Amino acid sequence: MCIYSRICGFKPTISDEASATMMETVSRAMTLPETAKEVEQLTQQLNSIIKEVDITMQAQPNPTNKAFQGVGAIRDLLSQLASNPRDSMTVVNLITRSVEHLLHAYHVDSTSKALDVEWARRLRDLFLGVCRVLLTQFTLVDLSRRITGSIVNVRMDYKWNVEAIEVLLKHQLVQTQVFDQHLAHVMDGGSNMEATLFAQRFFRLIGFNDAARMPVIKEAFPATYEQLLKMQQMQAILRQQQAAAAGSAEPNLDSPLGPPAMDALVAATAGPGVPPAVQPAAEEPGMSDKVEIILREWIGLCYTPMAQRNPKEALFQMIVMMHDHGVLSGDEKISQFIRMCTEMCVDVALRLLKTDATAPVSQSNIVRQRCYYTLDAFVKLMA
């Protein structure tokens, strides 16, 4: 079956019949064109794509859009290969950089502008069209190996693109065993927040939230599945232990400074006489309450004996809670969460320091310790 039958927004470079023939011969090893005829055929295919890209970019320019920029960058890479089709390093560079641009810029968001979404789709389809041409020179196994290697080695802020990885997986352009081992390793037992959240989203996406599909996912990604399962089990155990130690729904703070600091946090965020922080117009309703709940929970958790013994497990528990509340759903939400946490902690410190200004000298150190109690917890969460 053909990996890719038509480039949406660009003309196909070869016919479906030729594509079917090409897929029947993917068992061949990578062979750069040698004869003049082979060079001419490859160059024609590349120039055909370049021409269509140029026409479309001129017709619908969107220079500030990342996908538009990615399409232009891949177009330049194709031009380099068309100028020197026998250069193997140019081919490898085309693969590596194209994967990087796809991971960086392919995002389909329902809230995005229609033109931005269209260019994201064009970037995806251009990438698949490039792969289609490359399969005249590579076996599918070799191409997927090189693409997987590019994913493994790409910079971390590009790597965790669920939509792009799904596209590659759907078209058999990822070696699942290699990617599974890499993802499980990078997750590091949940200490890598981005990798862990990516794995959770990835499993939900490819499993369509259908429990019946989990055996198939487990078979394809056994190492990642095992990591997530262990973390889920550990989270359940930690919650049981915390509830048993507390004896109630409220966290049992292992510090005499705990309750006053918690009271100050509540007073700073809800008490009378303190002006509320100025909220941006785009703030999600209820976001302030979510942030307060998370911050209070963390302040209570990070000083417990369990958290002192296993800080990574405590942090993972909070990451799950933050994810459940939706504060990690995007860069904007994360920035908003950090800003609001900072404002709340500053309010707590200011209220306590005002108390310190009128308190006897003997109580001054206690007040400052209460400030540090809240601020240190915040720093640990952000570290």
Defining key terms:
mainly alpha; 3 domains
Describe the structure.
The chain folds into 3 domains: 139 residues, no CATH class; 68 residues, no CATH class; 96 residues, no CATH class. The chain has 383 residues and is mainly α. Helix content is 71%, strand content 0%. The chain is built from 18 helices and no strands. Helix 2 packs antiparallel against helix 5, helix 4 crosses helix 6 and helix 9 packs parallel to helix 12.
Write the layout of secondary structure elements.
Blueprint: H1 16-24, H2 36-59, H3 66-83, H4 88-105, H5 114-134, H6 140-153, H7 156-159, H8 162-170, H9 176-187, H10 193-207, H11 214-220, H12 222-246, H13 258-270, H14 287-301, H15 305-309, H16 311-324, H17 331-358, H18 361-382
GO cellular component, one term: P-body
Protein name: CCR4-NOT transcription complex subunit 1-like NOT1 connector domain-containing protein
Organism: Ancylostoma caninum (Dog hookworm)
Can you give me a brief rundown of this structure?
This protein is an all-alpha fold.
How many separate domains make up the residues? 3
Instruction: State the share of residues found in helices, binned by percent.
Output: over 70%
Poorly predicted tracts of residues: 1-29, 248-281
Order of helices and strands: HHHHHHHHHHHHHHHHHH
Ends distance: 48 Å
Largest sheet: none
Global structural class? mainly alpha
Q: Mean pLDDT, nearest integer?
A: 77
Shape label: elongated
Q: Helix count, per DSSP?
A: 18
Beta-strand level of the residues, as a percent range? under 5%
Number of strands: 0
Tell me the radius of gyration: 27 Å
